[in-house]
Amino acid sequence: MPKSTRKRKKWALNKHGYKGSNILNTDVASQLHKNSKTMPLISAKGDNKGVECMFKSSWFHTSNMRSKLFSFLLAFVIAFIPLAANFPSKAEAATTLQVYPAPAGIPLNADYTVQVREPGGVWQDLDEYRTTVGHPTKYNASFVYFDTDGQVEMSVTYNAGTLTSARIRGLNTVITPNINGNTMTFSMSGPMKLSVEVNGDINKHLMIFANPLEVNPPSPSDPNVIYLGPGIYQEDYTVPSGKTLYIAGGAVVQGAINFDNATNAKVIGRGVLDRPVGRAISVDYANQITIDGIIVNNYGSGNNGGCAINVGNSSNVLINNFKAYGVNKWGDGIDVFSSTNVTINDAYIRSHDDSVAVYNARANGGRIWYGDTKNNIRTCRISEYKPLFPGVQEICRLHPRTVPGDVGRESETLNSANGVAGSVINKQ
Q1: φ, ψ for residue 318 (rounded to 5)?
Q2: 145 forms bridges with which residues in the sheet?
Q3: Which pLDDT does position 428 carry in this prediction?
Q4: HSE value, Cβ hemisphere, 13 Å, CA-based, for 392
Q5: What CA–CA distance (Å, rounded) separates 103 from 84?
Q6: Nearest to 378 by CA among 351, 336, 414
Q7: CA atoms within 13 Å, Cβ hemisphere of 207
Q8: Which of 132-141, 147-156, 364-373 tops mean pLDDT?
Q9: Residue 221, CA distances (Å) to 49, 238, 249, 293 in order
């Protein structure tokens, strides 16, 4: 066998490891050099130094490549961190904000220009509804409303003079705004009710009603729903048993609501009852009634009383997230007569007379109420805006009165999570 052939066989045996020989010759070195341009020509001296050199060289180049790759990734991460900080993380979901334009023809007040936005977002205009407060002198005040599930930023510009000071208050809440000229800006942590008072004026003030987002609002096609979308409705509504009256945000009802003798009925939404005469909402001889989310504006009968809600001889009534303005003399907010299990939660009421009055038996409104008053105002959070002028009554009164023939009946204890009288946010 020629020598060259013999050498190739030795390389083949060593390459496959059959004999484990350490023999390398110039033919082997040449072959390795051809297969790897990065390796130097290996010397054939019968040892493994050439092989070690080959592997060290290969490791060196791989390590160098890894180092460059690591440096690139590190630079990318450093550059990405500031960009990532500008986006909300999964743990900090973005705020959802819902605004409702007022329908054309509704009286607005130009004393304020109010805007709202998600943090860092685009400003959205809010319509400033006009309401009336004060007695005996009456003043035009303003309110706005929207829905949110998180933090929002507010901008309020005062248009009726020079802004020198501002006070922003709610239930157990005081906010200090940033003032620049006639504009103040501030943040709200979520749903709440706030009074904005400029230059110490508690009458020409601005109320901000930040509602929670609606959960599963009813469908217009639901046969059990009386659906009032955005717009003006000039009529009274009677809600029968098993039905829901839905007053959408941006809807204004110039009329009253009647639940008398109904069972399992509701009025819900974000809309406004505007200037209802006498009782805005009547709940007499009813059971399982819900009133949630709406605003009652300028209710009452001239200087002869009236109320935002009357509950008489009824049971299981829930009044939640309710807002009411009534300026008429002797006008109450919510009157409860001889009823059981009435819950009032998260209400704002500005009335001339009692904001909430609880009676047992008594004649009122052409009717005589008989029976016990039990378990009423089980959770009472009432923010009442009332400077307590001379002759103006308390936020929440108990009247353990009786009528002839009803001897022995009396009002039982009211249970309250936050105090029967709630909180006076603007007592002067």
Answers
A1: -115, 125
A2: 209
A3: 27
A4: 21
A5: 41
A6: 414
A7: 28
A8: 147-156
A9: 88, 19, 18, 21
Instruction: Provide the pLDDT for residue 359.
Output: 83
Question: What is the per-residue pLDDT across 265-314, written as a single tens digit (0 to 9) for each?
Answer: 999 999 999 999 889 999 999 999 999 999 999 998 877 778 999 999 99
The model's pTM: 0.72
Q: Which 3 state secondary structure label does DSSP give 11?
A: helix
pLDDT of residue 64: 63
How far apart CA 377 and CA 418 sit, in angstroms, is 10
pLDDT at residue 416 tops 50:
no
Whole-number Å distance between alpha carbons of 103 and 117? 21
Structure tokens at 36: 């790897």
Exposure of 407 in the CB half-sphere (CA atoms within 13 A) = 2
Instruction: Classify residue 207 as left (phi > 0), alpha (psi -120 to 50) or beta.
Output: beta
Token pair belonging to 163: 């802004």
Taking the C-alpha atoms of residue 61 and residue 53, their distance in angstroms, rounded to an integer, is 12
Q: Omega before 223 cis (within 30°)?
A: no
Token pair recorded at residue 258: 């009647």
Q: To the nearest 10°, report the CA torsion of 280, 286, 287, 290.
A: -10
